[in-house]
Amino acid sequence: MKFLKTKLPGVFIIEPQFFEDHRGFFMESYNKHIFDEAGLSFNFVQDNHSCSKEAGVIRGLHYQLNPNAQTKLVRVATGAVLDVVVDIRKGSPTFSQWIGVILSEHNKRQLFIPKGFAHGFCTLTTDTNLLYKVDEGYCPENDRGIAWNDPDIGIEWPVSSPILSTKDEKHPLLKNTENNFCWEKSS
């Protein structure tokens, strides 16, 4: 596996090695020992599966407050997404900055997202299946979100009129969100 740094410290693009032949392919999508060696030691406790039937669906930008904040390992099993991560750690040199990475069934890339970052994605194809591991379970009381089109963040989504859930339509701007993440120089 290759662990590629991004402009957001702690967020990595992961390129797993895969073996392909006339039958299909095989790959290791997660190996605790390899992640530990890369300094990404986490105890994943839950696997989630999101299916979007249409292209142009935006889900996010989501996060959970501490103490239920989640580290995520995200990948696409079928289809493709623009996966987006926003730094929401107060005081961070990259606060409110974002990255977007294409994850697809073809490139097999994954995205590692630590606590302190909001996450969302836009489907680029129909019947997109996104899988992700988290190190904390879902906690409705600490579930929060940021408006997908926050002008202060300026995400360059591939759609202007996305398909949104009622919940995602109502998220506030980053400057108005409840957020208990603080950047620490050692992070």
TrEMBL record:
The pathway noted for it is: Carbohydrate biosynthesis; dTDP-L-rhamnose biosynthesis
Q: What class of enzyme is it?
A: isomerase
Which is one Pfam family of this protein?
A: dTDP_sugar_isom
SUPFAM superfamilies documented for this protein: RmlC-like cupins
Catalytic activity annotated for this protein? Answer: dTDP-4-dehydro-6-deoxy-alpha-D-glucose = dTDP-4-dehydro-beta-L-rhamnose
Q: Location of site Participates in a stacking interaction with the thymidine ring of dTDP-4-oxo-6-deoxyglucose?
A: 138
User: What does UniProt list as catalytic?
Assistant: 62 (proton acceptor), 132 (proton donor)
Give the enzyme's EC designation: 5.1.3.13
Q: What does this protein do?
A: Catalyzes the epimerization of the C3' and C5'positions of dTDP-6-deoxy-D-xylo-4-hexulose, forming dTDP-6-deoxy-L-lyxo-4-hexulose.
Protein name according to UniProt:
dTDP-4-dehydrorhamnose 3,5-epimerase
Native organism: Chengkuizengella marina
